[in-house]
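Hi all, long-time lurker, first post. I run a small reading group and we've been trying to get comfortable going from sequence to structure in the token notation. Rather than ask abstract questions, I figured I'd post a concrete chain and ask someone more experienced to write out its structure so we can walk through it together at our next meeting. Sequence below, copied exactly:
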Amino acid sequence: MVVVAAAVLTACAGSPDDERIGERVLPDTRVVAEHFQQAVAMQGAYAFQLAPQQHPTRPAPPGEPAKPSWWARLWPAAASQPAAAKPAAASQPAPVSESFFDRFWPSPTASRAAGSTAARPAVAEVRPRPPAAPAAAVAATATRPREGGGSGLSEIRVGALKHAVAFGHRSKEQGMDGNVEALFRSPGWLAWAYSPRPHLGIVANGSKRATDFLYGGLTWEWMYWDALFVDFSFGFSVHDGMLDNSEIAGKARFDRREFGCRALFRESLEFGYRFLERHSLSVMWEHHSHGSLCNEENEGIDNAGVRYGYRL
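-- Answer (accepted) --
Happy to help. Here is the structure in token form:
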């Protein structure tokens, strides 16, 4: 292109054959055409000469040695070494598009798409364990004996009671009583009343001038610190004592208590300590009276003593 431009400028510069028209100089068209043809011929020869250098792989014209390119002249070592083959790019999986929300809460669909291109390690299935029982409940289950075995009998208690306890004065019907009591397992229909245990017992006095009792009712028990217990019972009793002092041959007996009615209420309160799983020691107080519901004669009686219990 530089040669063509120089030829055009030379042609435009003028020649002896130029024709002048007024003030304007016009070159001869034949001269311009000749210069242009010479420039095109020179440009083609120059391009043909540079072609082998610009394209090293292109063969040189026959009979002429290949000329090195300007790159090989400057860096002969780099030109003599073959170009290293580029490793084939490994096929990369297409990235899975995820939203801002998926970055914090990945959806199952995105997780499956991401896991399909790479092997994921196997995760062992972890099943939740059932909640462990409290240590106190386990200890209570392990140490508390089974009540009653195959029968309804739960516990037997025996003891010695002071008959007709009085404070500050001499009491009627003195002496000592023997006591035997059987407690039974609480039936299911008494669950609404906090599962009391039914009981039957007897209080017997060896003296003919003292009253004996046969009683029955319900016993509620509360345990403290796995060893101490408190029992409260309520029920009824029948006795063989005096209703009033005038019933013996018309003579007043001031050494016997006047109960007024043959059937009485009975209440008791007991504090005890349980040891060796099945054994217990306790102190008990009991009261027999009709609460003035029968007649005016209602002396009542209080007995107190110690008892030993064995749970079946």
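A couple of things your group might point at:
The CA atoms of residues 1 and 257 lie 152 Å apart.
The first helix runs from residue 2 to 12.
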